[in-house]
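Archive maintenance. Older records in this collection stored only the sequence; we are now back-filling the structure field for every entry so that each record is complete. The fields below show one back-filled record exactly as it appears after the update. Entries are processed alphabetically, and NAD(P)H dehydrogenase (quinone) is next in the queue.

ARCHIVE ENTRY
Title: NAD(P)H dehydrogenase (quinone)
Organism field: Phleum pratense
Length field: 228
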Amino acid sequence: RPSSVLPPDLRSAEAELQPPRRPPMAVKVYVVYYSMYGHVGKLAEEIKKGASSVEGVEVKVWQVHEILAEEVLGKMGAPPKTDVPIISPQELAEADGILFGFPTRFGMMASQMKAFFDATGGLWREQSLAGKPAGVFFSTGTQGGGQETTPLTAVTQLTHHGMVFVPVGYTFGAKMFDMEKVQGGSPYGAGTFAGDGSRWPSEMELEHAFHQGKYFAGIAKKLKGSSA
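Back-filled structure field:
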């Protein structure tokens, strides 16, 4: 019989027999980036804020290992690295969704991020990342320097892992059509222009990054919920 028609004493006894409901597990979103001068790192901070604004989502920011020597970085004028923890390839498998950020090098991701992906062979053999949502964000020096080619060529890495690419599309709305100011970003993801290195992400670019984090976290949450 339905519990609603049982006497109160039997209903309470039935409730005691029911197993306790477990609280839903948090959706883990990782923001993994490489930043030489700090521009991508700044976007990563806003993306974390956006993703963290979604209820039930836990966000952790990581950076990938630097492959250049300190002497070389010094000659390039790169500032010291931040205290953001360095991620190992194997730790990617712990995430429910991952956003990757990197600067461009001749229209493609920087070699530091490519080296990190090259080290994920073990995950590929086990298909540990297959089915996980992934997105990208980026920084270029100029307007024609790769705001589309950099993320587009990065999709090959995600594809071989069987990940589900989640572009931001035009969900940022009318602000993506603003022609009054120079702004980075594209339907592929949030982006910024660094120029000669002295230009930092604008308010609009940071808003785009926040939106991407929030949008992506919502998608990751839906995907995990549908597979539960």
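Update note: The CA atoms of residues 26 and 56 lie 5 Å apart. The mean pLDDT is 91.
Entry marked complete.
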